[in-house]
Amino acid sequence: MSRSSRFITLTKELNRLKKQFLPKINPPGIYYSDRQLALTIAYGVFVHAEIEAYLEDRVKQVATDAKIDWDSHGKASRTLLSLLAFSGEKMELPPDTLSPIKGSKKVLLEKIKLDKKIELAVNCFMKTIKQNHGLKESNILALLLPIGIDSSDLDLSLLVQLNAFGEQRGLVVHSSATSYRTKQPPDPVDELNKINQITQGLLRIDELINALIK
What we know:
- Helices cover about 65% and strands about 0% of the residues.
- With about 210 residues, the chain is mainly α.
- Helix 1 runs antiparallel to helix 2.
- It starts with a helix and ends with a helix.
C-alpha cells in the first residue's frame, strides 16, 4: 500500500532533522563533545514534535472526511461509528415524547437528532486532538481508536517504544540540558536507531489509516 503524502512529508522532515542535528558517528572509544550531545538531545525533541504533528494531522483529516461524507451523502463510515462510540457521550434511550406537557423545557436536539449527536462526537474528538501533547500510549489510543483503528491491529512493541520516547521527551523538557546530559547522556547511534524503528512502526499505522479512507 502506498504511503500517504503526509507520511512522505514526515520522513522528509525527519531526514532534514537528522542532517541538521545528528553528528557524524564516532568510532568506539571516541567521545562526543558537549555541543554534539546537546544537538542530539535537540534532535529527539524536534522528532517528537514532528511525529506528534503527523499523527494529529492524519486523524483530524480522517474525522473531517467522515463528517463530510455523512453531511453530503449520509454515509455512515467505520470512522463515524467509532467517533460516536468513543466520544464519551452518554448513549441514551429515546425520549418518551417530543412535546412534553409538564414544564416549559424542550427536548434537547442532542437527545433526538442523529446529526447533532454526530456533530458533538466530532467536536469532542477535535478537542482531543487540540489538547494532545504527547506520544505515550494513552495519547496514541485517544487519537487512533476514535477514527476506527482496531486495537488488535496496533503493534504493542511500537506503543512501548512511543511510551519510552514520550517519557524521554518529558525528562528533557523538564530538565536543564546540563542535568539531562549528566544523568542520561544521549548516544547519537541509539537515537537514530530508535527513530528509525518508530518510523517503521508508524508506516503500519499510516497504512491502517489509508485503509479507512479508501
